[in-house]
From TrEMBL:
One of its GO terms (biological process) is mRNA processing. It comes from the Eukaryota. It catalyses: a 5,6-dihydrouridine in mRNA + NAD(+) = a uridine in mRNA + NADH + H(+); a 5,6-dihydrouridine in mRNA + NADP(+) = a uridine in mRNA + NADPH + H(+). This is DUS-like FMN-binding domain-containing protein. Keywords: Flavoprotein, FMN, mRNA processing, NAD, Oxidoreductase, tRNA processing. It comes from Pichia kudriavzevii (Yeast). Residues 61-314 form the DUS-like FMN-binding domain.
Amino acid sequence: MSDATYKEIDHAINAKQVNATDKGLDKRTTPYMGYIAARNPDDKPINIIKRCQKEGRPVFIAGPMVRYSKLPFRQLVRDYQCDIVYSPMILAREFVRNENARLSDFSTNDSDRPLIVQLGVNNITDLIRCVEMIHPYVDGIGINCGCPIKEQVREGIGAALMSNKDLVSEMVYEVKKRWGDEICIETKIRVHDDINETIDFVKEVEQAGVDFITVHGRTKNTRSSQPANFEKIRIIKESVGFKDAYSIIETTRCDGVMAVRGILSNPGLFAGHAKCPWGAIEKFWHYSTSYGLPYKLIQHHLSCMMEGLITRKQLIGLNECENLIELIEWFDERYQLKRPQDPGFGEGVHIPVRLDRSDMPNL
């Protein structure tokens, strides 16, 4: 193994990032970042949406993904025209009561903006305590009303809140009452079988003061393999009257597009790339080893991004790597994987197969 590879491993082990602590956030930083600066009002999601409206285009959003929308991936999608990025869902109760949860669940830095932190919460007390701790370090707070995972629904979190519009409205109202325009608050919802229930829901939440609503066009029982109901999204959009909102996307007439599964496999989606560009893979290697990320998450991200670029047999080989050293060597043996100091780093589109690899297809 080369000295460069050893240095990358050492850097990954020792990398630091800003993490949440009992007092809100500890001011530990990456080697490349200073202390976290005050948030810029221009980075508030509602201002980003209005800016995109003036430009005549939808706002592009990378949605929350459990485990996967952590700092390195958020940094990556920002390089490919993503306007707003979400954190993974954070359980508010665990966050306010458990230091280990804070250290593992939230990290950020000065370039991680605009950022919405999504909360899984089922009561006003936990919401307010969590917002008090985290809001100086994010640009928006999202209430998860759409997660269909049974364990979360049993706890009254996620999609369970779609049956409790009064509670959601009260949570939104209490946050806006305490912080007003200082905090941008959003709710992410799914649709009901009866569209009128969803219309009633969004109208009540709008009256409570929510800044914007993200609609997932499936019910909580609809599998992700089934198509979303874009007609219901259009109807919901037309039923509310958010100030300055107007028709942008022809089918739904909504103001933005959120991607989750698609952007996980192709971080260049919003920049118009049909498949994951090779430069995104080089950048992800850099961000994940610079900021630090558990090995299994690094492997999963790279597996998703490489899936459309290599054969199934080759993908199996990637997934059989047992540690970061093996994974770096697997890439270096097969591809021309550039580092940040190399000319053309992060700029490639097509996969650069090493010419001495006779077992590789002509990609």
